[in-house]
Every structure is written in structure tokens, then in C-alpha cells.
Amino acid sequence: MKKKYGPEALALFKHGYGGSWFKHLSNAYGSPNIAAPSYAQCRGPREVAFNLTFGSIIGSPEAVDIENARVLVLIGSHLGENMHNTQVQEMADGIGKGMELVVVDPRHSVAASKAKYWLPIKPGTDTALLLAWMNVIISEKRYDVEYVAKHTEGFDELKKHIQGKTPEWAYPITGLKPELIRETARFISAHKPRSLIHPGRHTTWYGDDTQRMRSVAIQKLDFLVTIDVLPAEICGWSDVVLPESTYLERCDDLWAPYYKQPFLAVRQEVVKPMYDSKPGWWIAKELGHRLGLKDYFPWKDSMDYAKQRVKAAGLDCNVLEKTGVILGKKSPTCEEEGLPISFDTDSKKIELFSKQLDAAFPGQGLPSYTPQEEVPAGMFRLLFGRSPVHTFGRTTNNRLLSECCNENEVWINVEAAKSLPGFEDKPLRSGDKLVLINQDGVKSSAIRAKVTQRIWGDCVYMVHGFGHTAKGLKFARGRGASDAQLITRYKVDPIMGGTGMNVNFVRLERAGGVS
User: Fold this and answer.
1) Is 184 exposed, middle or buried (0-12, 13-18, 19+ CB in 10 A)?
2) What CATH topology corresponds to 2-35+219-327?
3) Whole-number pLDDT of residue 41
4) Bridge partner list, 384
5) From CA 177, how far away is CA 427, in angstroms rounded?
6) How far is residue 118 CA from its own chain's centroid?
7) 248-252, 486-490, 510-514: least confidently modelled range
8) Where does CATH 3.40.228.10 sit in the chain?
9) Are 165 and 134 in contact (CB under 8 A)?
10) DSSP E strands: which ranges in 176-224?
11) How many whole angstroms from its chain centre is CA 496?
């Protein structure tokens, strides 16, 4: 393949730090074509937005001091149903200390159930709300005037930009009453500086996502290889499947995340790999040898590789091998009081107006609200999310985890359910079986209805990862419906290239039978 097409013909789509072995292999082969769903389909917009504004990305896990906040704002962030466990624990600790939540979400999520304010916003209008909040905070001088004057650029442009973006302006757009917008803006700003808006995780929604975050085909492949610890639909499309051993059966690469208390950790083998599975380091090394890249893998195994790196860092390999973790000194999440502040932007300040962005996309130096396509008559906007029990859609074939969640449901507003076309003779009730048909005629498998007041009227919601059709997924096959199957349209963010997928619409039909 390399002789025929060049090294760039090899592409790697990876997820998680366990993919570092294959990133190394791809780089050794000479291909820069490495991508991850965690960027283009997840957190890319916020990384680009924060880099443009602050000169650095927000990182993972996010460097936000949740447990010491007095107000935490979540916009489409489902802490408790998603995110890192550490952040859920910090949120619980913060709530225990009296922290209040403001949750912006068209669905009454787990976090919304804990909130002082739940703002059931119309999907796709979050930027309008953010601009209205800015309008209140700036016009009423509820910001830190001294800090803004000293550490930001572009405030005058921002101030002019949000004139007229009042809560009354945002009301017909967002569906949120002006008094609620104004009250929550005052509430959030009243607790500064211990008030924060969480940057979120899955931030690719509508294709204009970088600007929102600035305000807070396989069939044609010649050859497809899948490396995974669990079977998935993609295995059915693959020419070769290389089964990787699970985390208890392998030694992984070193992990040194930037937590409040930094640490160096390594997962070590507890039991030998079962069946024909092999650890990722072994697969990458053996492929490298067969590709003539032996010099790029000059270590015996992953532990030998880890020990060389630990020794070079001046740390004790014996301690790491015995305990699995070496703790570092706690570091501040935010700036320490009194210390000089600087940012890695060209101006060394927070750039509220981005000259770089405006040069590349004239007129977009400041975030603006872009109206989204309205929901067609008789249809609903399709929204999707995750179950706290499962890892994306990879573990729905696991019988133990599925004791907690073995099937997804489609949430539909109770008032919208009363006026569904085709349901006049027999109104829709929770438990009824439905099929969803999208704007391109794609039809889902049967899924149970959840009729509730906890969701905006013109959208429906379902948990991702169900509706499998692969015969090998014997337990998960045929349970619920697949949101991925119904996502046949997307919009590309022109700034960072992410794919917004909340642009698909579905209509509902009865599948027959009531549970």
C-alpha cells in the first residue's frame, strides 16, 4: 500500500490513551492522518475556542475548580450521565458545600434535577442565551471591571456587539422568559469569582459550535482493520479484526493527566490475556516489525518502555511497579491570588475579540447567534446522549452492565404526544413501541416510548449505543434503536472541522403492540 499510494494512505482513527501505541506506529510509518472521535465529534470546538480566547486549550479533564465553586453552570453538559467520575465526585462535594446549579438543557437531565434553575431551552439557541446573559452582566456592570480592563482585549467591541441582545430579544429565540434569563444572569454574576460555566464535553451540535464555545464512509476503503477489546458493529465491516486484551490483561503506557494533584500511573497485568487477544503494545510492535519499522520499537515490552521513561524522569521505578501510582504535589486549578497573570495569546491577554478569527472569517471575531433550521411540521429534532452505565455503545452487549440498562427509550414531550398524527384513536403512552423515520426515509428498529414533561416539545431524545444488528452481538442485538442509523445528515463547523449532528429530524409511527 505504501509503494502504491504513499504513507498518507494509512489513516488511524483512535480513542483513549491506549491508542498511543498505534499513534506511534502510524507516525513511524510516515502518516500524519490520525484522528479521534473525541475531537471532531466531541470536544474539538471548545479546544479551538479556548485556544483562540486564552491561548491554550481547556484540556482533559477540564481545569475547572468545581468543588470550590458557588455556582456551576451546565449548558448541555450531562454531569451524572457523562463526563469523568472525578468531576461527578467534585460536583457532589460542591453541592454538599452549598454550591448551586444552573442547568441549560432541553431535557430534564440528572443534573437538572439537582439544579436551583433549570432552563429548558429550545435546541440550537444556546448562543442567543449566552449573548443575552452577557448583555445583562455588561450593561449592569456585574463583571470584574478591574480584571477586564487589565487582562482582556476587545471588550469595547464585545460591549457594542451585545447591545440589543437583551433577554427580550432572546425570548422568542430560546423560549426562555426574559425574567428568567435576567434572574439567572444576575445569580451567576453575583457569585463571582467562584462562578463557572463548565465547557462541556460533547460540543459538536449544529456546525457553528466553535462560536458557541467562544462564548463559554467506510465502504470505499481498500482495507479496514479494527483493534478493540469488545465486538462492535464496525467489526462486521472490517477485513481484519485484531482482538486486544482488556485492561486487566495488559500493561498500558504511562498516564500522567493534569489533575489538581498530578500523578503518574501505570496499569499492570493482573491475569494473562485470554483466548487469542493480545495487548495493544504487542500488536503495534509486531505490526511495526513486519512493516520494517523495528528501529521505532527498541524495547522488550510495555513495562520495559515504561521503566525507561520513569528512570529518565528521575522517578523510582520500584515504587511505581509496587503501587501503580506516584503522586505529585497539588497544583492550583486557577490563578493564585496576587501572582502575575499572562496568557499564551499574541496579546498575552484574554482576547474577547479574536483578530485571528476575524482575519480568517471576516465578521466572526465575536460570537453571533446563527438561527438553525426549524423542525419540519410533524417531525422532531433528534437529540442523543449517553448512559452513565455504559461506555458509549461498546458495553451494551455486557449482560452485567445491562442489568441496569439493557434497552434505550425515546423521550417525547407529553403535550406533543397528545397531538401526534396517526395516534388520534389511541394516544401514545409510555411503553408503547415506536419506529422513528428520519428526513431521508431511514427507519429505525422498534423502541419504547417515554412520555414525559421533562423535554422540550419539538425534540425527542434517546440514549446512544443500542439498536445493534451485528449477529455477533448476541445479547445486545435487536434491543432498542440506533441513533447513529438515523444520523444521515451533518453540518461541518467551518472553523475547526467538527461534524454537528443535531441537525436530523424524525417522525414517529406506532410499531404495534403495547408493553
Assistant:
1) buried
2) Rossmann fold (3.40.50)
3) 64
4) 462
5) 30
6) 21
7) 510-514
8) 44-215
9) yes
10) 195-197
11) 15
Residue that wins the pLDDT comparison between 1 and 91:
91
Are 261 and 327 a contacting pair, CB within 8 Å? Answer: yes
Q: Please say whether the beta carbons of 486 and 501 come within 8 A.
A: no
* Residues 396, 466 contacting (CB under 8 angstroms): yes
Interhelix angle 126-139/178-190, nearest 10 degrees: 60
Within 8 A by CB and 6+ apart from 452, the residues are 108, 411, 412, 413, 414, 430
CB of 14 closer than 8 Å to CB of 235: no
Beta strand pairing call for 12-13 and 34-35: parallel
Buried b (16+ CB within 10 A) or exposed e, 478-488: ebbbbbebbbe
**SS3 label, residue 190:** helix
Q: Grid cell 479494527 — which residue?
A: 226
pLDDT at 514: 42
User: Mean of the pLDDT values across residues 257-276?
Assistant: 87
Mean pLDDT, residues 154-173: 96
The average confidence (pLDDT) of the chain is 87
> Hey, what amino acid is at 29?
Y
Tell me the three cell numbers of residue 118.
433549570
pLDDT, position 428:
94
How far apart, in Å, are the Cα atoms of 339 and each of 334, 336, 345, 456? 11, 6, 18, 45
434 in Cβ contact with 447 (< 8 Å): yes
Domain(s) labelled CATH 2.40.40.20 in the chain stretch across 380-514
- 87-92 contacts at long range (C-beta below 8 A, 24 or more positions apart): 87/61, 87/62, 90/66, 91/66, 91/67
Q: What single string gives the DSSP state of each residue in 249-311?
A: GS----B----SS-EEE----SSPPPTT-B-HHHHHHHHHHHTT-GGG--SSSHHHHHHHHHH
Say how far apart CA 369 and CA 135 lie, in whole Å.
13
Q: How many CB atoms lie within 10 A of CB 201?
A: 21
Superfamily (CATH) of domain 44-215: Dimethylsulfoxide Reductase, domain 2 (3.40.228.10)
The 10 Å CB-count burial string (b at 16+, else e) for 34-55 is eebbbbbbbbbbbbbbbbbbeb
The CATH number of the domain covering residues in 380-514: 2.40.40.20
Task: Provide φ and ψ at 425, rounded to 5°.
Answer: -75, -30
